[in-house]
Amino acid sequence: MNNALLSYHDAVLYRSGEPYRILAGAIHYFRVHPDLWQDRLRRLRAMGANTVDTYVAWNFHQPQRDQAPDFNGWRDLGRFIDLAAEEGLDVIVRPGPYICAEWDNGGFPAWLTGTPGIGLRCMDPVFTAAIEEWFDHLLPVIASRQASAGGPVVAVQIENEYGSYGDDHEYIRWNRRVLEERGITELLFTADGGNDYFLDGGSIEGTWATATLGSRGDEAIATWQRRRPGEPFFNVEFWGGWFDHWGELHHRRDADDAAREARKMLDLGGSLCVYMAHGGTNFGLTSGSNHDGTMLQPTVTSYDSDAPIAENGALTPKFHAFRKEFFRAQGMEELPELPVELLADARVIPAQSLPLSGAPELLRLLRNPEAAVSSVKPLTFEQLGLDAGLLLYSAEAILPGQAATPTESRLKITGLNDRAYVWVDGVFAGVLDDVNAAEGLVVTGTGVSARLEILVENLGRINYGPLTGQGKGILGGVLINQRYTFHWTQTPVALTDWTQEDLEALAGADFEIGEPADTYIALPDSGKGFVWLNGFLLGRYWEKGPQVTLYAPAPLLQPGRNTIKVLELGKPGTVVELREAPDLGPVEAGPIAAAELP
């Protein structure tokens, strides 16, 4: 763009005509309490960064199709950008519409991906029409804050890592065009993995191609010199840490190892954005899932990501290692002194153990005839307009056998996404998931009708790869041996919409404080479920780990009485602990591969 603040020529990046290097870090406004935005941005600036990078999560702003996109409060993207400017940071915005980001559904609203027959991330007119309508609301927020309008926005990304998904270059060019038509005049760029395969699918002529990778940056730079010889190298996602899945170990990357890799790219003249500089938290039900081709891999509630600025804002050894490299890249070997207030630990509530009141019987709590919807075949989350949470299915089925000779059968579910809790005549029969659903559970019958109740939990929508947009619930059917069961009622359980009245029935604990401070909530003898603090859905817990504690930032607490509520799905506990430090589980250390999932 001729009038853009950033430009490039002969593989050199310029800002206002002067050679320049982007030294950036990613912070997602939707993962950080808005009262903490300025603090986290200030810490990024203190790390030596000149730019903050953020995605825009469409489903965060418009979870329901019949509601206009919301840009208020926590969703006030414009305020986040303005605060970045106050801290002296340029801003890179990555509006998607697809973002990956280990965020539920890759940022797509479930109402969009649940549209029958829709083609995602291609020139399907149903899909592109929805994008244009969304961009009509979103892009004025960004365009009005561009450098050309006196704001801090200096670059905007086209789509996201498309070379990992498809090769519809017409679609990428269309994305570029709709951004330009809606007033984006600053530098546009694509972002893809650091080798030929990803560039083949995602880069287009006449548009800056940037990279996403965690190691072997020198190899990627050599690829760019061969494939994009006139363009400066920018690693827009340098994976200095990594996220966690439930049932795996907590990822940790050595600070010196990450800094050495960053220095390698900076010494070769590249620009760099640390992903994540501050990860934050997948509050509520916003964490997505991956799929390894065999099984679902749901992401934990914490998005700490072993980032330089920890989930609670602490400055880690990785912060100091990156700070040294960022200032060194600016020709400063002598580091400026850090403000004292940034070095102080955040205040925490003193550790305490709280008795957890008795949990109600789960089925009795979730049965709601007034909300039930009848159908012949099981309905999915999408067919019922349910984005996240739980769905209770109920039907009558004849279980083979005779009164004198009860017979064992197999209850199987086809197309189960993601986790099913099964009861027969009110007696718990077991749990099925995407691995064992086809094998099923043993049930015993006597040839008479039995009541089946199946509670399906959405563990987070897939955010990366060819299964992005996959539906939730029972997508196939329920079999007794080879025989289908028909005539179902479905009761949606929209946990994110639960009111204080809904929460009153749950197990709970209260505590008193004088002044709000951070705390870390643990449920050491509970199994799996959800936690609310003062009516706010913090997120999921699961005894399989690795995450043990849930971060509760000070703005969610209040002077006086505070209330924790717990919905347990299988193993009710007796105690809630408030701890003084996070516990994200046992560690798996190692380098981040260049071709890891973005």
Kindly describe this structure.
It comes from Arthrobacter bambusae. InterPro entries: B-gal_1-like, BetaGal1-like_ABD1, BetaGal_gal-bd, Galactose-bd-like_sf, GH, Gly_Hdrlase_35_cat, Glyco_hydro_35_CS, Glycoside_Hdrlase_35. It is an enzyme of class 3 (hydrolase). This protein is α/β, with parallel strands linked by helices and 598 residues long. Helix 9 (255-267) runs parallel beside helix 10 (317-329). It has 3 domains: 6-343, TIM Barrel, CATH 3.20.20.80; 352-359 and 506-585, Jelly Rolls, CATH 2.60.120; 362-495, Sandwich (Jelly Rolls). The strands form 8 sheets. Strands 4-5-6-7-8-9-10-12 form an 8-stranded parallel β-barrel, surrounded by 4 helices. A 6-stranded antiparallel beta sheet has the order 16-25-17-22-19-20, with no helix packed on it. A 4-stranded antiparallel beta sheet has the order 15-32-27-30, with no helix packed on it.
Distinctive features:
30% strand; Jelly Rolls; 598 residues; 3 domains; alpha/beta; 6-stranded antiparallel β-sheet; globular; 13 helices; TIM Barrel
